[in-house]
Amino acid sequence: MELSINFFFEPKSGNEFAEYEDAFWVRRVDGDGTLRLAVADGATETSFARPWAELLVRGYGKGNLDSKDFCGASSAQEESTGDAVQVGGLTTLLRRLLKTVLWRASSPREIDASKRTVPGEPFALARYRRCWRRYVGSKSLPWYAEEKLALGAFSTLLGLTIYGLDSGRRRSRIWSSIAVGDSCLFQLRHGKLIDRFPIVASTEFGSRPELLGSSEPERIVQTGRCVERSGAWRHGDSFLLMTDALACWFLTMIEAGHPVIETLQGLRDRQSFLELVTHRRRNVDSTSDVMLKNDDVTMIVCRIGAER
Amino acid sequence: MPYSAEVSRTNPSCFLFLIDQSGSMDEVLDPTEVRALDRPLAVDGQTFTHSASGRTKAQGVADAINRLLQNLVIKCAKSEGVRDYFEVGVIGYGSNTAAGSVAPALGGAIAGREIVKISEIAENPTRIDERVKKTDDGAGGLLEQKVKFPIWFDPVADGGTPMCAAIQRARDILDRWVQAHQLSFPPIVINVTDGESTDGDPSTVAAGLKSLSTSDGNLLLFNVHISARGGGQVEFPDTDRSLPDEYARLLFQISSVLPPHMQAMARQEGVHTTELSRGFVYNGDMVSVIRFLDIGTRPSNLR
User: How far is CA B200 from CA A98, B18, B22, B94, B203, in A?
Assistant: First the structure.
């Protein structure tokens, strides 16, 4: 199956790339015709939000985190050896810690170590929380950074799994998605928007989205806050995954009847994305144009096969 | 649209606190061990007939300001350090110090400074106290947890209430600030007092202060009237009809109308507001003062 996957990301205007706090994941799973994509938006007002967002997209991308981790009990899974294309830019230390944690998680001793999880806390999520704590705990910090760390980091998470890419059977061509917060998925067919998830209208975006916390067990997402959706795909369909600022702009443009789908599908490189984002951030609200909020922006565009 | 400017390191926001340090701020909040005095005692125009133990209004305000500074620092703390989203000043008025009756009130290495970047605040507390915080243990009990409590500002209670001079000083400081930060969210001045101005009607100087502006709107002046007596508290009123006296109405009249994002934040905290609600609390206890400071300093658009 021919796949076209492009990913785009830019930090807030005026910020450095090192200050970009979104994360994303693009990964084809070997052998079973499955593709996993994820984006996450680390909360600006927290510290070490990017490592937390990276851990979440990695957890989803490797199949270690799924809706059952946010909505109920779970056990750890083996690390897959798929051909990962990880492009979120994990730091070396974080990679090393992940390897350690994932190796330990595969041993029975670790799985039995219930004292290290909070009762009711899904094991896989607890594992990623410990990983984050080890990462941030390796640094010597002044009083304010310690206080901030105690509050934890927060992030949204949007994951998409596309099944049946190697299957000739139409019934196998399905997708499933989970979302915590306001990062969004859009499905396109014949140049039209046919599905949107979890937010369906631009007016639903607010300043307090649901978030996954790195430290607070009581903030574990319960049923209702983590939402799931599934559907079918066809040859020629495209999926767009976006963090909130771009998703809000996209939906607003759609609602106003602007040909925004062609604009986004026409993006081919970082320069064209940068020009679009820079231009739209400068626009003011009017009947013809919609302003893009100055936030980190991330988008994955995945097109399956040729359109029929 | 006014009051929508992004708060960033390039275009920071500014908070200036004017703190009443007059003698009446020595009055005890939540008094315990109340005892009758042998003879009435006159302090700062008020007559006292009893003594009591407990935290004074000056101590309560100092705690609230130190806690607010701590929260602002933590809000700006990122993995690489503290981002200078805010510039902050604390001006005390009332106490007759060597610097005069209206003077910068932060201590330590930043003593004497009128406006200080938040990263400098973070690095320069005068000391870090340890306090006990009680938290829910999840089993119906309370856990005592030691927490760090940085101190930048110590309580003082002495002298009169030269509010006009304090507001004029704020205007002098912020006139320079707005000229240098025309693209910033306008400065927010929060005046915390328990009494009547002793150097005249502050209406004219307050109007002058509120005439300062950036391209995002006029300076915002908010007033907090604190009380040790409790009862009859009025938060973010949109009319002066429920206020008991001329002086309370005067503080209401010089207070700015809340921008829409602060009205929304107040509503989220369960406080009724309207489009005409003003940044004013009358007869507030320390809980309402802390809530007011939080709402009055929370940015709507932090980059």
Answer: 66, 17, 15, 14, 9
List the single residue in A14, A15, A47 with the smallest CB-CB distance to B79: A47
Residue range B13-296 in CATH 1.10.10.10: no
For B106-124, the pLDDT digits (tens) are: 999 999 999 999 999 999 9
Number of domains forming the structure of chain A:
1
**Looking at beta carbons, which residues of chain A come within 8 Å of B69?**
none
Indicate whether A305 pLDDT > 60. Answer: yes
Domains in chain B: boundaries:
13-296
* A44: nearest CB among B70, B73, B302: B302
Structural domain range at position A255: 3-304
Whether omega before A198 lies within 30 degrees of 0, making that bond cis, reads yes
- Among A22, A20, A47, smallest CA distance to A156 is for A22
Residue among A54, A224, A13, A22 at smallest CA distance from A136: A54
What residues of A are in contact with residue B148 (Cβ under 8 Å)? 143, 146-147
Residues of chain A whose C-beta is under 8 A from some C-beta in B? 12, 14-15, 18-19, 44-45, 47-48, 50, 136, 142-148, 151, 207, 294
CB contact under 8 A, B303 and A148: no
Give the Å distances, CA to CA, from B175 to B180, B190, B219, B247, B287: 9, 16, 10, 27, 32
A199: domain CATH number is 3.60.40.10
Q: What is the pLDDT of residues A263-301, one digit of tens each?
A: 998 888 999 999 999 988 886 545 456 789 999 999 999
**Contact assignment for B302 to A142 by CB distance below 8 Å:** no
CB–CB of B21/B105 below 8 Å?
yes
Answer for the pair A81, A63: CB distance below 8 angstroms, yes or no: no
Q: What's residue B103's pLDDT?
A: 93
CB within 8 Å: B77 and A151: no
CA distance B300 to chain A (A): 9
Nearest residue, CB atoms, B148 vs list A18, A48, A143: A143
**What average pLDDT does the structure give for chain A?**
79
CA distance B56 to chain A (A): 27
Nearest CA in chain A to B265: A207
Separation in Å, CA of B13 to nearest CA in chain A: 16
Q: Which amino acid is at A167?
A: S
Phi-psi region of A246 (alpha: psi -120 to 50; beta: other; left: phi over 0): alpha
* A20 contacts A296 by C-beta, under 8 angstroms: yes
Using a CB-CB cut-off of 8 Å, the residues of chain B touching A147 are 70, 74, 77, 148
CA distance A103 to A240: 33
Q: What share of chain B is helix, strand, coil (3-state, %, to 5)?
A: 30, 35, 35
Query: pLDDT tens across B62-100, in order?
Result: 998 999 999 899 989 988 889 999 999 999 999 776 666
The pLDDT > 70 percentage for chain A reads 75
pLDDT value of residue B203 = 96
Residues 6+ apart with CB under 8 A from A302: A3, A4, A5, A35, A37, A160, A162, A238, A239, A240, A241
- Spatial CA neighbour of A43 closest among A211, A158, A214, A242: A211
Q: What is the pLDDT at residue A94?
A: 53
Reading the block at residue B173, the tokens are 């400081």
